[in-house]
Design a protein that fits this description.
The complex is a heterodimer of chains A (435) and B (215). Chain A is α+β, with helices and mostly antiparallel strands and 435 residues long. Chain A has 16 helices and 14 strands. Chain A folds into two domains: 182 residues, no CATH class; 177 residues, no CATH class. In chain A, strands 1, 3, 4, 5, 6, 7, 8, 9, 10, 11, 13 and 14 form a twelve-stranded mixed beta sheet that branches. The two termini of chain A are 28 Å apart. Chain B is built from seven helices and ten strands. Chain B has one domain: Rossmann fold (3-Layer(aba) Sandwich). In chain B, strands 1, 2, 3, 5 and 6 form a five-stranded antiparallel beta sheet that branches. The longest helix of chain B has 18 residues. The chains are: A alpha+beta (435), B alpha/beta (215). Chains A and B meet through helix 1, helix 13, helix 14 and helix 16 of A and helix 1, helix 2 and helix 3 of B.
Chain lengths: 435, 215
């Protein structure tokens, strides 16, 4: 038998009080840990995806929506802009590069984005197999999308119009997209997108007027020719690609082609002064991702701070609960403790006994709380998977959580210290005489 | 050699009477009854003998060791090993079983005793069948047996009993006295019973009467 065993048993002797304390503690710890995990992963996602994008050029509307739709691919686009109209901005000398993004279709709810190979290069997404799309209706698929959709090289599929797989079944297109490549996971938006040349999107919508009730089922073609074309493709691309050239080509082809947005990277520091002038009196807008995301973070931040404050309050109450339950137990059990001394127990052993009882509650509360927060993140991740095709990692342990554990243990010791000291200084003879 | 010997014990409460106790000693296999009405300092004397309280003046010597010379942890250890105390009402660690409660004695006094020693003790006191029960489910008589088992498990040479029978009916009181006596002989210990229970007066020959001595 050990003191630790007695302490453990004592915790459950007063099961009601202990359960209440555990509930409070685990909720406090759980909420704080969940906020930490969420904050960390959200800001990680936001920052990773902003990369060096200085502006997003798109149709008028909410600038935040423009950013969310085109940088993070989680909101509906604000509309389309004419390629011809965008020329004077993307060709401005202050702009180093412009990457076009054209929406229009989805496959099983996963966005098909018409763009140039620069887009994936920009995010440093490497090819895992196959090649990068070259001609219309070739697609290169992000790793997460490929996994979830079960897409393989050489496979073909029909797209659905719009961004949602639901309710659009009547509007399926006839053209077959062919998977020619799959990207490696990059931890960026590329992972959950299906990339195709921007011309695919134009062709679908130019010739796609005749509507048949084709729906997006996987039309699997078992020809694996595509596999023979191998990886080393990206190097060639890296040199040749420049947004300008592409944009020019587009321009040359057709005057009234449309895209959803251009991601712009500036060449000169005065770009923020010059470019906004150029979009004046057009139906386009320039949005700055860094500013919009800052604003979003601020709004988010207030909400998160409130939740954290509530969690801290819950934790303070739970420490009070540890303190009170130990103190009550001490009063009820003073004879028990006196008897332990009579049996040869030393003062320090009683001190440790009470301290351990408090720590047991705190440690258990911590463990339950950390598990709860992971369960919460997993549930959230499932929700995010459904609505954004994105997920959160619940199985990580943040450095901030070590602080959370440390501070909680420390406060647990403080809350147990006074009752433990009282046990230490107890006058056994007096206690036993009060019989 | 006497197991316990006291000389000129006095105790003064900070705001109360001064108690002066007669000196006495007890040998192996001896029984001593300490009688007195309430207010005569019976419990205080018992606590002084057990080293739970320090006397204002005078000495208590157990097995040749002066309790005054010991302090803190070593006194706790010494008491745990050499002195078994039975209280009027038995207090147990509520969360533990009968077995675990009596095992507290060897644990806290660092005595190497096995579970089977504890079972033998419970058997001798006829409560082995209750070993896995919580103490709160036992009758008062059974509880007192468990308390005796706990006090005796370390084979103490001095057994101090504070009103061990006053909460019990005649039959149980007789039982408890007999048990204490038997075990005292088995352990070759000295038994000191502090009581005002008249039922014990006729049973024990050797006795000391405390009178209210105030100055």
């Amino acid at each position: 038998m050990k003191i630790i065993f007695i302490a453990w048993k004592n915790c459950w002797q007063k099961a009601g009080a202990t359960t209440l304390t555990l509930l409070l503690l685990s909720f406090g710890v759980g909420i704080i840990s969940m906020m930490l995990l969420l904050e960390n992963q959200l800001s990680d996602k936001f920052n990773k995806n902003i990369k060096d994008i200085d502006f997003v050029l798109g149709a008028k509307g909410s600038p935040l929506q423009l950013i969310l739709a085109n940088v993070y691919h989680i909101d509906a686009p604000t509309g389309n802009i004419k390629v011809s109209e965008a020329q004077k901005i993307i060709k401005n000398p202050t702009v180093k590069e412009a990457i076009p993004l054209a929406y229009g279709d989805n496959y099983e709810g996963w966005r098909i984005v018409g763009t140039t190979p620069r887009y994936a290069e920009f995010y440093e997404a490497k090819l895992k197999e196959g090649k990068i799309f070259e001609t219309p209706f070739e697609v290169t698929v992000g790793s997460y999308a490929a996994k979830e959709l079960g897409l393989k090289l050489g496979q073909t599929f029909k797209s659905n119009h719009g961004l949602d797989k639901e309710g659009e079944e009547e509007e399926g297109h006839d053209q077959l997209f062919t998977v020619v490549g799959i990207y490696e996971a990059s931890g960026t938006v590329i992972d959950r997108l299906i990339l195709t040349p921007v011309e695919s999107v134009w062709e679908v919508h130019d010739h796609g007027d005749h509507e048949e009730s084709a729906h997006a089922g996987i039309v699997s073609a078992e020809d694996h020719d595509a596999e023979s074309a191998h990886e080393d493709h990206e190097d060639e691309h890296a040199e040749e690609e420049d947004g300008h050239e592409h944009a020019e080509e587009d321009h040359a082809h057709e005057e009234d082609h449309e895209v959803t947005a251009y991601l712009l990277i500036k060449r000169l520091p005065m770009a923020p002064m010059i470019l906004p002038q150029l979009v004046k009196n057009t139906n386009m807008q320039l949005a700055l991702p860094a500013i919009e995301i800052n604003r979003l973070n601020e709004n988010f931040g207030i909400g998160m701070s409130v939740v954290k404050a509530v969690a801290i309050l819950i934790m303070i109450i739970s420490f009070l609960s540890v303190f009170i339950s130990l103190f009550n137990a001490l009063r009820e059990r003073q004879y028990e403790l006196a008897i332990l001394r009579t049996l040869g127990g030393r003062r320090i052993q009683l001190f440790i006994l009470i301290l351990l009882e408090g720590l047991f509650m705190v440690i258990l509360g911590l463990i339950i709380g950390l598990v709860l927060s992971r369960v919460g993140i997993t549930l959230l991740s499932d929700m995010a998977k459904d609505s954004f095709h994105d997920e959160f990692n619940a199985m990580i342990f943040l450095p901030q959580e070590y602080y959370l554990v440390g501070v909680t243990l420390g406060l647990g010791v403080v809350a147990s210290l006074l009752p433990a000291l009282r046990a230490f200084f107890m006058d056994i003879s007096k206690t036993l005489s009060n019989d | 050699m006497a197991i316990i010997q006291t000389t000129n014990l006095q105790y003064t409460f900070s705001r109360g009477p001064q108690l002066i106790f007669p000196s006495f000693q007890a040998e192996e296999n001896s029984e001593l009854l300490i009688l007195g009405n309430s207010g005569t300092g019976k419990t205080t004397l018992l606590h002084l003998l057990a080293g739970l309280r320090k006397p204002t003046s005078g000495e208590v010597e157990v097995n040749g060791v002066k309790l005054n010379a010991l302090n803190g942890a070593s006194l706790d250890r010494f008491r745990g090993k050499n002195i078994g105390v039975v209280f009027q009402t038995s207090h147990f660690v509520q969360s533990l079983s009968v077995m675990d409660n009596i095992l507290l004695a060897p644990y806290f006094s660092n005595n190497k005793l096995s579970k089977s020693d504890a079972e033998k003790m419970l058997d001798r006191l006829n409560i082995l069948s209750k070993k896995n029960k919580k103490t709160s489910t036992l009758s008062v008589g059974e509880q007192q047996r468990v308390a005796i088992a706990r006090a005796l498990l370390n084979n103490p040479s001095l057994i101090l009993a504070d009103e061990p029978t006053s909460a019990l009916d005649d039959e149980n009181a007789k039982d408890v006295l007999n048990l204490l006596r038997e075990q005292t002989h088995a352990l070759k210990a000295a038994l000191l019973i502090v009581t005002h229970d008249n039922r014990l007066k006729d049973e024990v020959k050797q006795r000391i009467e405390l009178t209210a001595l105030k100055s």
